[in-house]
């Protein structure tokens, strides 16, 4: 049986999050029964991640057993951490009161986001500016990616630099891109090819350059390039509130609910 659309989005997300376990050189990725622990090596909760893997969770006892692994790991390191979850893949008994169940494990909901898939992109609904872009491959582009991410997602720059500046961070499946306006790096996007789709991450634009269509122009250019390279034409993401209407205009449809829970 083919994976459901929401399971495809979740599988692509699991692959993308592995980036943070290899980024700093001080962390690691630990696979256990039904859960992946991704340790960034720094004390920043959203970069220390646990995420459920297959098989599907059987019930509350299985849920609790799986969460014991990241609890023990990050408690021993005395660092904050987060759990990333597709709510729609949880058993009904947990799904219907997810916040309460996670709270019983010391985790509060930080964000929620629709998981979305587009089997193809719709044409732009407005003229987009021309944009120059380059893949993250050298120190300059890595620092630009860190700088823009810091402003876009309100993360301290030193933390972003710790994660995004090291060269080994970019040796896996996570590919970063930077877009330029008049020679200045102003927007970012990242993609991960996994689970039969091109996953989209880290879409952001510097304040002062927003609402000009720059991020959309970058994203469309990057996706066209990666589609040509891979032959894939289906795309997946988890949307922020700010990006939701843009993604709908681009042809994305909701397929499920995702959330991040934080210690």
Judged by helices, strands and strand pairing, the structural class is alpha+beta
CATH overall fold name of the largest domain: Aminopeptidase
From N to C, what is the helix and strand string? HHEEEHEHHEEHHEEEHEHE
State Rg: 18 Å
> Roughly how much helix do the residues carry, as a percent range?
25-40%
Polypeptide structure, described:
This protein is an alpha+beta fold. The protein folds into 2 domains: 110 residues, Gcn5-related N-acetyltransferase (GNAT) (Aminopeptidase), CATH 3.40.630; 124 residues, 3-Layer(aba) Sandwich (Aminopeptidase), CATH 3.40.630.30. The chain is 35% helix and 29% strand. The chain has 9 helices and 11 strands. An 11-stranded mixed β-sheet has the order 1-2-3-4-11-5-10-9-8-7-6, with helices on both faces. Helix 8 links the parallel strand 9 and strand 10. Helix 6 crosses helix 7. The longest helix is centred in the N-terminal third of the chain and has 18 residues. The protein is globular. The two termini are 36 Å apart. 40% of the residues are buried. The model has no long low-confidence stretch (mean pLDDT 96).
């Amino acid at each position: 049986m083919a994976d459901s659309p929401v399971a495809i989005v979740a599988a692509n997300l699991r692959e993308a999050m592995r980036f943070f376990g290899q980024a700093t050189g001080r962390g690691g990725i630990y696979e256990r029964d039904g859960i992946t622990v991704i340790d960034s090596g720094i004390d920043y909760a959203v970069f220390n991640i646990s995420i459920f893997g297959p098989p599907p969770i059987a019930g509350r006892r299985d849920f609790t057993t799986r969460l014991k692994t990241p609890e023990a790991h990050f408690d021993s390191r005395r660092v904050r951490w987060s759990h990333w979850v597709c709510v729609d893949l949880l058993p009904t008994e947990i799904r219907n009161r997810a916040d309460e169940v996670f709270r019983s494990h010391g985790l509060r909901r930080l964000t929620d986001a629709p998981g979305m898939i587009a089997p193809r992109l719709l044409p732009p609904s407005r003229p987009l500016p021309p944009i120059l872009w380059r893949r993250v491959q050298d120190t300059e582009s890595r620092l630009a990616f860190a700088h823009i991410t810091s402003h876009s997602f309100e993360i301290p720059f030193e933390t972003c630099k710790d994660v995004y500046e090291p060269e080994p961070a970019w040796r896996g499946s996570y590919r970063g891109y930077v877009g330029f306006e008049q020679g200045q790096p102003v927007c970012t996007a990242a993609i991960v090819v996994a689970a039969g789709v091109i996953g989209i991450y880290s879409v952001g634009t510097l304040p002062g350059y927003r609402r000009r269509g720059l991020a959309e122009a970058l994203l469309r250019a990057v996706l066209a390039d990666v589609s040509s390279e891979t032959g894939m034409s289906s795309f997946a993401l988890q949307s922020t509130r700010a990006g939701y209407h843009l993604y709908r205009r681009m042809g994305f449809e909701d397929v499920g609910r995702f959330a991040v829970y934080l210690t």
